C-alpha cells in the first residue's frame, strides 16, 4: 500500500488514533463506503470531524487506512495461508480463514474488501487504487505460491496458477457474500471443506 500522509504536527491529540481507526474500519465494513457520511464516521470513531480531518485526512484517506488495517488484521489469513506445505493446504487455510473472518461474532459479517469492490465505482481514484492494489497483491502472491507448487510437483505440470488463484479467490468472495446474507458459519465451513477436497479443480 502506498504511504498515507501524516497529520500535521501540533497539539497532542486527545484520543487514541489506533482505536479510532479500528472503529472506522468496522464502520466501513458494516455500512460500506457510500453508506456512511463523514459525520457518521466521526461519531462512530468518538471524535469530531475536525479531529478526523487532522488525524486521517479525507474520507478517501480514512478508507485507505481502514483497508490497510483490515489487510493486516482480519484478512491476514491470506498471507498465513501461503506458508502451508501443500497447495491443497493453502486452499484449506485460505477458505477457512475467509469463513472465520466473515463470521466473527464481534465484527460485521462479510468482507470489507468485497464491500469495497462493490462500491469501487464511487470511490475516489486513490482509494480505488489502494483497494485494487491490495487485491492484486493477494492474487499475485497466491499465484506465485501455486507456481511453486507446480515446480515442486505438488500440482500437475499443466495446472494454471493464475486460474487456480482466481478460482480460490472467487470461492472466498462467495463465502463472504453468503456470510453477509446470514448463512451460518457451520454451513460456510462445510462448504469450504467440500471445496478444499475438490482442489485443485479438475
TrEMBL record:
What UniProt keywords are attached to this protein's entry? DNA-binding, Transcription, Transcription regulation
Give the matching InterPro entries: DNA-bd_HTH_TetR-type_CS, Homeodomain-like_sf, HTH_TetR, Tet_transcr_reg_TetR-rel_C_sf, TetR_C
One Pfam family, please name it.
Answer: TetR_N
Which residues fall under the DNA-binding region feature?
37-56
Name assigned to this protein: AcrR family transcriptional regulator
Gene3D superfamilies per the record? Homeodomain-like, Tetracycline Repressor, domain 2
Tell me where in this chain the HTH tetR-type domain is found: 14-74
Q: Which organism is it from?
A: Catenuloplanes nepalensis
